[in-house]
UniProtKB/TrEMBL annotation:
Pfam families: T2SSF. It comes from Ruegeria sp. PrR005. PANTHER family: GENERAL SECRETION PATHWAY PROTEIN, TYPE II SECRETION SYSTEM PROTEIN F-RELATED. The chain crosses the membrane at residues 171-200, 220-242, 377-398. This is Type II secretion system F family protein. Belongs to the GSP F family.
Length: 406
C-alpha cells in the first residue's frame, strides 16, 4: 500500500486536495472517481525515511500543536470505544481535517498495513510528535493500554496548550502597546529629530548625550538593516535546527538546564512525563524494571535519559524503586517519599500516580505565575524604552528654550 497525494475537482468545480491510500496509482484514481472527483494531479507521497536522523525532515512541515492535540483526543475516544486502530485512522480521515493531517494519517495507515506498530507509524508519518509522545505510545502498546495512553497524552497536550494560550494572551496587550510605541518613536526619530539636529548645528551647540546616543543607534540600525534582517533569518533557522538535530538539541538542553527559571521548568516537565509513564506501566501490572525502561524512553534531555538508565540498572541490581529514584536529579524528594510509601503499603502504582499529579500541579502553578508576571515586566520595559526616546527628543527642545530665554 502507498499514500498518494492528489488534486481533484468536484462536480461543482471546487478544487480539493488530500491523500488517498491504494495499492497502485490506478486504484487511487478509481477510488477518487468513485467519490465523484475528477483527478487533475496525483503522485506517490513518500514517507519520511526511517533511517535518516539529524537533518532528515529538518524543513518538513509538521502538524501544529493544536492539530496534534485534536488527533490525540480523537484517537483516545475512538480506541476507547474499542475500534481497531486501522478503523480509527479511517474514521479520522473521514472527518475532514486539513490536508496536512490527512497526509499524516494516510502515511500512518500505510505503515500500519505493512506491519509497523502504531507508535512507529506515527513517528515516521511526518506529524512531528515529540519523543516523549512516541515513547508513551510504545509503553501503552506493551501494556495493552493504548487508549488510556492517548487519553493521558491528550490531557497533557490540552493543559500545555492552555498554558501556552494564557501566556500568549498575556502578551497581546504589551505587544500592541510596543508596536504603537515603536511607530511613534520611529516618527519622532525620522521627522522631529532631524529638525532639532539642524537647529543645533546652526546654533553651534552640542546635542545632549542621550539625544546623540539615540541618533547614533538609529543611524547604525538604518545602515545595517540588511545585515540585521539576515541575522534574524539565521537566528530563526538556528532555532529550528536546535529543536530537530540531535547533538544540537543536547547542547541546547545542557545550556537551558543551567538557567534558574527555565531549568526548573524543564526538570518539573521531565518529572511529570517520567512519573506518568511509570504509573501507567505499573497500573498495567508490569514489572518495575519494565516500567523504568519504558519511562526512560519518554525523556528528551540526554542528561535525564542517562540518569533514568542508571535507575533501571539499580532496579536490575535488586534495589527498591524509591531507592533507585535517588539517581534522578529532576524528581523532587516528596515524589520519592510518596513512592516509598506506596512500596510499603503495596500501593505502588497508585502512589506513583499521586506523585505525578503533585508535580504536575506544581508545574501548572509555576507556568501561571510566569504568565501573570510577563505583562507588567514587558510593560515596564516598553515604557522605559519610550521614555528614553521621548527624553532624547525633549531634552534638546528644553535646551533651545533655555538658550532663547538667555
Amino acid at each position: 500500500m502507498k499514500a498518494y497525494s492528489y488534486t481533484a475537482y468536484t462536480d461543482a468545480g471546487r478544487r480539493k486536495r488530500g491523500t488517498v491510500v491504494a495499492e497502485t496509482e490506478t486504484q487511487a484514481v478509481q477510488q477518487l472517481k468513485g467519490k465523484g472527483l475528477f483527478v487533475s494531479e496525483i503522485g506517490d507521497r513518500a514517507r519520511p525515511d526511517r533511517g535518516r536522523r539529524g537533518t532528515a525532515g529538518l524543513w518538513q512541515r509538521r502538524l501544529t500543536a493544536d492539530l496534534q492535540m485534536v488527533l490525540t483526543r480523537q484517537m483516545a475516544v475512538l480506541l476507547g470505544a474499542e475500534l481497531p486502530i486501522e478503523a480509527a485512522l479511517d474514521a479520522l480521515r473521514a472527518s475532514g481535517h486539513t490536508p496536512g493531517m490527512d497526509a499524516v494519517l494516510a502515511r500512518a495507515k500505510v505503515a500500519l498495513l505493512e506491519g509497523s506498530p502504531l507508535s512507529d507509524a506515527l513517528e515516521h508519518s511526518g506529524a512531528g510528535f515529540p519523543r516523549y509522545y512516541i515513547a508513551a505510545l510504545r509503553a501503552g502498546e506493551r501494556s495493552g493500554e493504548l487508549a488510556t495512553v492517548f487519553a493521558e497524552l491528550a490531557d497533557h497536550l490540552e493543559e500545555t496548550g492552555a498554558d501556552r494560550a494564557q501566556i500568549s494572551t498575556a502578551l497581546v496587550y504589551p505587544a500592541f502597546v510596543a508596536a504603537v510605541s515603536l511607530l511613534v518613536c520611529a516618527i519622532l526619530m525620522t521627522s522631529v529629530a532631524p529638525e532639532i539636529v539642524a537647529m543645533f548645528e546652526i546654533s553651534d551647540r552640542p546635542l545632549p548625550p542621550l539625544t546623540r546616543l539615540v541618533l547614533d543607534v538609529t543611524d547604525w540600525v538604518r545602515t545595517h538593516l540588511p545585515l540585521l534582517a539576515g541575522m534574524g533569518l539565521a537566528l530563526v533557522a538556528g532555532l529550528i535546527a536546535l529543536s530537530r538535530i540531535g547533538w544540537l538539541r543536547a547542547r541546547r538542553d545542557a545550556v537551558l538546564l543551567r538557567l534558574p527559571l527555565v531549568g526548573r521548568l524543564m526538570r518539573q516537565a521531565a518529572a511529570v512525563q517520567y512519573l506518568r509513564t511509570l504509573a501507567l506501566v505499573l497500573t498495567s501490572r508490569h514489572a518495575v524494571l519494565n516500567a523504568t525502561d519504558s519511562a526512560a524512553e519518554v525523556l528528551t534531555a540526554a542528561r535525564f535519559r542517562q540518569e533514568a538508565a542508571q535507575v533501571s540498572e539499580a532496579v536490575r541490581a535488586g534495589n527498591s524503586l524509591s531507592a533507585a529514584l535517588d539517581q534522578l536529579s529532576f524528581v523532587p524528594p516528596v515524589a520519592r517519599q510518596l513512592i516509598a510509601a506506596g512500596e510499603m503499603s503495596a500501593r505502588l502504582a497508585r502512589m506513583t500516580e499521586r506523585s505525578a499529579v503533585l508535580v504536575e500541579n506544581a508545574l501548572s502553578t509555576e507556568r501561571k505565575r510566569i504568565a501573570a508576571l510577563l505583562e507588567p515586566i514587558l510593560m515596564m520595559a516598553v515604557g522605559g524604552f519610550v521614555l528614553m526616546v521621548v527624553l532624547a527628543v525633549l531634552l534638546p527642545i528644553f535646551d533651545l528654550q533655555a538658550m532663547v530665554a538667555v
